[in-house]
Write the structure tokens for this entry.
Amino acid sequence: PDKVCGIYVTANNRNIMLRAQMPHIGLREDILRQLAYVVGKDPEHATLYDWRIALSHAVRERIVDRWFASTRRTYEEGAKRVYYLSMEFLIGRLLEDAITNLRLDEAAELAFRELGIDYAAVLLDEPDAALGNGGLGRLAACFLESLSTIGCPAYGYGIRYEHGLFRQSFEDGRQVEAPETWLLQHHVWEFERPEAMFQIGFGGEVREAGARAVWEPTEAVFAEAYDTPIVGWQGRWANTLRLWSARAVDPFDLERFNLGDYVAAAAPEALARTISRVLYPDDTTEPGKELRLKQEFFFTAASLRDILRRFDSEYDDIRKLPAKVAIQLNDTHPAIAGPELVRLLHDERGLEFDEAVALARGTLSYTNHTLLPEALEKWSEGLMGRLLPRHMTLIERIDALHARENPTRKAAARANGQVNMGELSFVMAHKVNGVSALHTELMKATVFEDLHQLHPDRIVNQTNGVTPRRWLLSCNPRLSALVTEAIGEDWVDDLEQLARLEPRLSDAGFVEGFAAAKRANKVDLSNWMAQGHDLLVDPEAMFDVQIKRIHEYKRQHLNILEAIALWQEIRANPDAGWAPRVKIFGGKAAPGYVFAKKIIRLINDVARVVNADPVTSPHLKVVFLPNYNVSLAERLIPAADLSEQISTAGKEASGTGNMKFALNGALTIGTLDGANVEIRERVGEENFFLFGMTADEVVNRRDIANHAAKAIAADTRLELALKAIREGAFSPKERDRYRDITDNLAGPDYFLVCSDFADYWRAQREADAAYRDSAAWTRKAALNTARSGWFSSDRTIRGYMGEIWNAGSLNP
Ligand code: NTF
């Protein structure tokens, strides 16, 4: 028999093996077979949905072959495994990603052309898996893809939320939230694993049993696993995303049912399922305290048990744990992993407490994603003690041990009636990382100052990255084709190869091609906005895009203030040769974040007034696209000219949108914040519109009395823009609709919108001038692409593998 992919092939499974090597073979036949035998339709009656399910199954089969092979190799090699624990995985659509990585695009397109079906529409039919809020969740998704591309044996662990991030629409300019329902449609990509089920307890008592303790919870739910294979570039490797779903231990109260109390009979099941019901739509504050803490413990405890079960199947010495297992905590959400792992090792396996802590610390590491004080998790001792009584005691002992080891220590994880999860994560991790150079330095100087003094080698930096497969190859086929034509296709998993584009900038044909790709992407976007949103914009105009969660620190209100000032200036002087602009916004506000929702409404109100103004409308349009998500980002980023990265310096930990824009040839207007600093260093300061105060200047400016009032008094444009809002220019029927915003900006203005306004205006006019010279602009844009290679998440993951996980790659 032949040997393919390390497996001996018999005549019977020969077709499967051939398909593993050449996935395009027989694709059309497989789609039709799946349509008939899995979907149960014939081609005459199949809907778009049916075709998508059939195609997805045909693609999935091709992944499964690689998936098995990857798992087998990992066992054969006794390789170290990486476990990425994250409350959020913002993966978006999976079909196109899989098709891209398996290189099935042409075969799939051809198959559907032959079948007479609109292939693009089939791909678009897939709902986004929106199991995340924003940057933190999307980073986790890019990391999964890079881990598979690199061939690092890894699992993502998270929660299978029944409802992902809410759907956003606008009513009268206001954000309206509706539940997201991705699981109402058959989710093709997952495999249910009823055999991987763990009982997770809450509450109850702790009984002392000699030196150990026994925790006897009073409440319990089952965690059931669902696996999604994540295939890397060229299908060389596939890892697993394992998501936990909650279900009741005793699903159904038959006695109550027979008495006719149907609601009470179903209650236990409903209550248990609540744990995996919804993703918290907030990435900066902690609502629904108890349920949130339950979610955190639920998925962390299930994941740890699963990890130890797998470890036990291979090794019989638990002391090998740090050598064979690396567990990354994505922010503090899974921080309970520290005490829980100690509990499993000490209480359940009988290791000495100090050794249990040492083993856990050797296995765990922690990534911090924000320094915003309201986002740093703290749990009241009352709540945690009630839900996790044993863990409370263990945290106290962890504190005591750490204090013994470090007598000069000041703070502790348990202090002032609260448990500080950042502190706990730091103490229980062998490495702690920030997500950009600036953020990591600020971690050392602020939140973790004391702990950093005690453990100067623990904090390291791993600047974020994005996967080039999704964020260039697949979302921007025109630019990718141009790049591949110029330098071959090695860039796809070696993004620094993009540097080889630079010499091509003297080639008029290449530069022309670059401009043409951007232009065509903009035409596509304009057509889509005209059809789907009834918005007419001129593709010749500069597309100026700000897409991200709505937050005061991200300063969408600075952007809209500038739009108002610009509108006023154009009205006063319509013939001054304005560079036409379309300002595009997208993003959701946390439902309880009243100020952010006001900002959304203001932008919509301004858009209505400005777009209806015949004097200014050839020069300025304002657009807020509803329901921003991963798929919308994939549509907008390739068409952007200008990328708005305008957070108050020191507040944005990294940003990853900023990288996606630069990679796709947009110029950044931005502050020295997060990864903007590193982007500017790499693309060159002449190809980046810098403005605003530095993080140090921000801190000092806040100490100046009436800083906002002074900035307003010194800048007539700002004053007039604020005045227009205050006088109801955008809300004529309700003049003080935006009183909170104008009062805040003229008063405390914590995020220093007013103080940065004048310099922002200056940088924007510089951008206008640069855009007017279209040849020079294209050159700058192309340099952004050519110099963005370092921002691949492959580079980031290699950094984690080398400096944090001590893990290797098994890619052939
Ligand atoms: C986010 N943090 C940061 O705000 C972004 O700057 C960063 O790029 C991403 O993490 C990824 O590192 C969060 O979403 C959270 F939840 F921590 F606030």
Observations:
- The longest strand covers residues 219-231.
- Residues 112 and 118 are 7 Å apart (CA to CA).
